[in-house]
Write a structure and sequence with these properties.
The structure holds two protein chains of two kinds.
Chain A: H1 11-33, H2 36-65, E1 75-78, E2 83-86, H3 87-107, H4 130-137, H5 145-161, H6 165-183, H7 190-222, H8 227-236, H9 241-259, H10 267-274, H11 277-302, H12 307-329, H13 335-354, H14 370-392, E3 395-397, E4 400-401, H15 405-408, H16 411-414, H17 416-430, H18 436-450, H19 454-479, E5 489-490, H20 495-513, H21 516-525
Antiparallel strand pairs in A: 1-2, 3-4, 3-5
Chain B: H1 5-21, H2 29-53, E1 61-69, E2 74-80, H3 82-101, H4 112-132, H5 136-145, H6 147-157, H7 162-192, H8 202-205, H9 212-229, H10 237-245, H11 248-258, H12 260-273, H13 275-301, H14 306-326, H15 330-361, H16 372-375, H17 377-390, H18 397-412, H19 414-439, H20 445-449, H21 457-475, H22 478-495, H23 506-515
Antiparallel strand pairs in B: 1-2
Classes of the chains: A mainly alpha, B mainly alpha.
């Protein structure tokens, strides 16, 4: 009789993920058992408190795994090799959970829509029907968005931690499915929102197909799905090299789709524009963290030995992404779409850090490492982006958010504070010194150049110049032109949105002026365990 | 620990600027202007005290060094040598002048006088930072940060096409700056290879050995930014467009102060950090400089718009400055260093008085002026003096610097000097023809019907100090030259250049200027 061994699970290290999953599940139960009137409050507090609890627990795990003795890198492979809880993972968790708290607060904003959330009153009611009108006059709202958010967060936490291909695939789906749904739940412009959800879902499913195919091929090559075993197979050059190349290519397609790198970026503008802006804010920040975390781990840990094979492709993708993002952004006339294209360009900039892959022996003490640069950039980009999208929710006219450039004309005259803050965030996205964006850009470019990718860096700085042009255009529009007649006005939000904006804005300022402590910390934790 | 002079000079205007920006709406325009003027005068006094305490042979002084971002090797490090101090002084002298001269220019603009003077003060602080930074990373930060105040000053307070001009200005300069960013990052990579870890301190980097190719690429990266900034042909086109739309005060701060970052950067960073590449690039840069001298002068002759004309004269003069730097001998370099200061003074006077005239006539077109000297003799007289300074008349300060540059160019190559000298002839043409067309002769019909008023007391008080300095330094440039020359020798040692002929006694050169 065969003996069954129960898997050994390190519950204490995994507790942050488990807390989030538990909160998400509780949220579903709340929908079933709590009366409608109290659901909003219960769900919001559950999501916020749950995220904060998970965040606190992450710090505890961080503290426990990191003895803090200089060169020792924290980390432990847990759950029978399925997950790696190490420095990059823990920092990604901190980021994702932080963004989750802000996302939950933005989701909970009720003042802007006159007492209800920005999500559809009844998602099942067809747009333009009586059912929809009834739902909106009765002030109905979907509080399911909070459990959906928490499920997405759990996926985003597992994705960068996953240490084998099956786990990474499951995490990919867990983070994507709730996002597809959330994208389609806008209260206003519902057709646009549903179209966005549909597109995101179709293309996402398609790219998942690629990913699974690549997974199968790599399994065929290495005989295992674990990153460590794959790395050993790559180092030993055991299998057919062609199989490995095709497998890596397919996996890369799935990853590049999630982070919105060209040529797999087509969904980004439509989805960012159509989704409720609060969802866009959270998605833009959170998906980037999770996607890049997973991409780096997969290619650095599992395929690090085949660097020379995938680096040329990564060069091409990085260059293409920067060029496509920056050039197409020049033609935009809608603030949300512009931010979407800017996000594509930023994907390209972050990918330059990806090119910094070197063997650890080549990186001298005190030199900047690719993962360190990546994590710093993700922090700055996430904060700045959430604040920018949150400000977009404030500029409204009678039909909801007004995002066209004409509507934003002369906003600096009507509301100098909001326009000034938005301008500063745009300067941050453009990477102007004294903002966090500049330090982030410097870090990723330095990582790339240290590995000899100077042609990409030169293209990246030229791309930054083009990017600066389209950011400057909005500033010109807001400050150097007179407002249009009966244009939108800035609605005063509740403490929820304004608090998020303040925190993110402060982060952009502080990380621009004193980035040292965070960079030092990241220098100590930014090594993957293998 | 000694008193942080430079930090205070940097911080005071910036803090006051922030306070003005967030001041309540009820604060009156006059109060804002008085606060701005008072602040700039306080900074001027600080600058004068610093100049008195400065030891000409003391190398880098008033230094402050603190770690800032360890991972990048970046420091908050300030300090000035003779060149740095002269440009800091230029900044703090011109800022109160501009504030006084532009007393009412901010009233019409987009954010009123509050915004106008806040941006000017912010610019002053950042400009001090640029000239005082002794850490490449910090320099880069200030370098880029100065773009923002100018961008808003041009875009918010200029002529009808100001938004377009502001964007063009920003794009050109950002482009240059970002190319430089690539070189700055490359510098990090090179310095990180050293055993002591990455450092951006100028004192550490000047000992750094980089490969020939890498050094040349980095040199080019820095040079592109500086050539955009101190506009040389062919990257100069933004300057004329910007000056045409900006208020005269903004143009002064831009051309007289900020564009000096370019030529200052060439001396401070290109020569010191990349000596081999500097020697390698000399022929090409000299050719570009000579083209700029002649091209700028020709464009100035063809201009019918006063600010455009002055902007093109500056292209020509920056050609002289860059020529002086890259002939790599002591005459040329000390001439160039002196020229940076003098060009700042003469151009400022020209822009401001031209601006007074434009605001009276309501047009900047030269062909629509005429006969001004009869109705406004003081204006015309001061304009003539500053014009003569611009064409380097002996006895006025730019003459000595131009003379030294041409001597240096002659030592380098008689051909370069021969072409550069045509710039002087052309300068006489564009200044005197402009004066003739604007000020002399019978005016157009309407001047009789609506005569313009002469300069008022505020306007005279604002430009007279500048004119006085031009005359004073024209006859007695010794204090300034003494301040600059030790740095010149230091730069030449760094770049590994030697004077082929015995050094012309520099004080004798200045005496010659005075005696003519």
């Amino acid at each position: 009789m065969t003996h069954f061994t129960a898997p050994h699970i390190e519950y204490s290290q995994l507790a942050p993920v488990l807390i989030v999953l538990a909160v998400a599940t509780l949220g579903v139960l709340v929908e079933a058992f709590v009366p409608r009137a109290q659901r909003y409050l219960v769900q919001v507090s559950l999501a916020v408190v749950g995220s904060i609890a998970a965040l606190g627990d992450t710090f505890w795990v961080f503290d426990k795994l990191n003895p803090g003795h200089g060169t020792v890198h924290p980390g432990q492979v847990v759950a029978e090799g399925a997950l790696a809880v190490d420095g990059p993972t823990l920092f990604c968790w901190i980021l994702v959970l932080g963004f989750a708290v802000m996302g939950a607060l933005l989701f909970a904003e009720r003042r802007l829509e006159g007492g209800v959330t920005a999500f559809a009153g009844q998602a099942s009611a067809l747009p333009g029907t009586d059912a929809e009108r009834i739902a909106s006059t009765r002030g109905m709202e979907h509080t399911e968005v909070f459990p959906l958010l928490m499920f997405a967060v759990s996926g985003m936490m597992i994705f960068p931690a996953a240490n084998d291909l099956i786990t990474v695939f499951v995490a990919l789906e867990v983070l994507s499915l709730p996002l597809y749904l959330l994208c389609g739940l806008a209260r206003r412009r519902r057709l646009l929102s549903q179209e966005a959800a549909m597109k995101y879902f179709m293309l996402g499913a398609f790219s998942s197909g690629f990913f699974v195919y690549g997974l199968a091929l790599v399994y065929g090559y290495a005989g295992s799905l674990g990153y460590a075993q794959i790395a050993a197979a790559v180092a030993g050059k055991t299998g057919s090299h062609g199989l490995l190349l095709i497998g890596m290519g397919m996996l890369a397609v799935g990853m590049f789709f999630k982070i919105g790198a060209a040529p797999f970026q087509a969904w980004v503008p439509d989805v960012y524009q159509g989704a409720p802006t609060a969802v866009t804010a959270f998605m833009a920040a959170g998906t980037k963290v999770a996607g890049f975390g997973a991409l780096f781990r997969l290619f650095y840990v599992a395929f690090g030995g085949a660097r020379t094979d995938w680096l040329p492709v990564a060069w091409a993708v990085a260059i293409l992404t920067m060029v496509v993002g920056s050039v197409l952004a020049l033609a935009q006339t809608d603030v949300k779409r512009l931010l979407a294209y800017s996000s594509i360009a930023h994907t390209g900039f972050i990918l330059t850090a990806f090119l910094g892959a070197r063997s650890l022996a080549d990186i001298g003490p005190g030199n900047i490492q690719p993962v360190q640069a990546l994590l710093f950039y993700l922090t700055t980009y996430g904060l700045t982006n959430i604040a920018a999208f949150a400000i977009v929710t404030l500029v409204r006219d009678s039909s909801g958010e007004a995002t066209s450039f004409t509507a934003w004309t002369g906003l600096g005259r009507k509301s100098p504070l909001v326009a000034g803050a938005f301008s500063f965030l745009l300067l941050g996205l453009a990477g102007i010194p004294l903002t966090s964006g500049f330090i982030g850009k410097w870090a990723v470019f330095a990582a790339a150049m240290s590995a000899g990718a100077w042609p990409v860096v030169v293209i990246a700085v030229l791309g930054s110049a083009a990017a600066a042009f389209f950011y400057a255009r909005i500033i010109v529009l807001m400050f150097f032109h007179d407002p249009v007649a009966d244009g939108p006005s800035v609605v005063l939000p509740s403490i929820l949105t304004s608090g998020v904006i303040t925190v993110c804005f402060a982060g952009t300022v502080v990380l621009g002026l004193v980035p040292g402590p965070l960079l030092d910390l990241l220098g100590r934790v930014a090594v993957f365990i293998r | 620990m000694s008193f942080p002079w430079l930090t205070v000079m940097l911080a005071v205007p910036v803090v006051v600027a922030l306070a003005l920006a967030f001041a309540p709406k009820s604060i009156s325009a006059t109060t804002v202007k008085q606060i701005a003027l008072g602040t700039s005068l306080v900074v001027l006094v600080l600058g004068i005290v610093m100049a008195i305490r400065f030891d000409n042979n003391g190398g880098m002084q008033f230094t402050e060094t603190h770690d800032w971002i360890k991972t990048f090797g970046a420091h908050y490090a300030l300090g000035v040598d003779g060149l740095g101090l002269s440009l800091v002084l230029l900044t703090v002298i011109l800022t109160p002048v501009v504030i006084l001269a532009s007393w009412n220019d901010g009233d019409e603009g987009r954010w009123g006088p509050k915004g106008f003077f806040a941006w000017i003060l912010a610019l002053e602080g950042l400009a001090v930072g640029v000239f005082a930074a002794t850490d490449v990373f910090l320099f880069y930060i200030f370098f880029e940060a100065t773009l923002i105040p100018i961008y808003f000053l041009v875009g918010g307070y200029g002529g009808p096409n100001r938004a377009k001009a502001a964007v063009k200005f920003l794009l050109y300069n950002l482009f240059g700056g970002l190319v430089m960013l690539a070189a700055v990052i490359a510098l990090y990579v090179e310095s990180a290879k050293a055993t002591s870890g990455p450092s951006y301190l100028l004192s550490d980097l000047s000992h750094l050995h980089v490969g020939t190719d890498v050094g040349r690429w980095m040199f080019l990266g820095f040079m592109v930014a500086f050539v955009v900034k101190a506009p040389l042909f062919p990257l100069h086109t933004w300057l004329a467009d910007t000056c045409e739309e900006a208020t005269p005060g903004t143009s002064v701060l831009l051309v007289s102060v900020l564009d000096k970052i370019g030529s200052f950067g060439m001396v401070r960073f290109c020569l010191v950090l990349f000596p081999e590449a500097s020697r390698w690039a000399t022929p090409a840069v000299v050719v570009l400089a000579v083209i700029s001298i002649i091209y700028g002068a020709l464009m100035a002759i063809g201009s019918d718009n006063i600010p455009r004309l002055i902007a093109y004269t500056s292209v020509s003069h920056f050609g002289f400055i860059v020529l002086g730097i890259f002939v790599l001998n002591s005459q040329g370099l000390s001439g160039a260093n002196l020229y940076m200061f003098n060009h700042g003074l003469s151009t400022a006077a020209l822009f401001l008085i031209g601006g007074f005239l434009i605001s009276r006539k309501g047009t900047a077109s030269i062909s629509r002026m005429g006969g001004i000297e009869k109705v406004a003799p003081v204006l015309a007289g001061l304009f003539l003096v500053s014009g003569l300074a611009t064409l380097s008349l002996p006895g006025l300060s730019p003459f000595i610097s131009e003379f030294l540059v041409i001597v240096g160019a002659f030592v380098y190559s008689p051909w370069a000097a021969a072409f550069a000298v045509t710039g002087i002839v052309l300068a006489a043409l564009y200044i005197l023809v402009m004066y003739q067309r604007m000020m002399t002769g019978p005016g157009p019909e309407e001047i009789a019907s609506s005569p313009i008023s002469d300069l008022n007391l505020r306007e005279i008080v604002s430009v007279v100090p500048v004119i006085a300095l031009i005359v004073l330094l024209g006859f007695f440039p010794k204090p300034l030259l003494d301040m600059l020359n030790p740095g010149v020798q230091h730069s030449l040692v760094q770049v590994g250049a030697h004077d082929p002929t015995p050094t012309v006694p520099l004080s004798g050169g200045s005496g010659e200027g005075g005696s003519k």
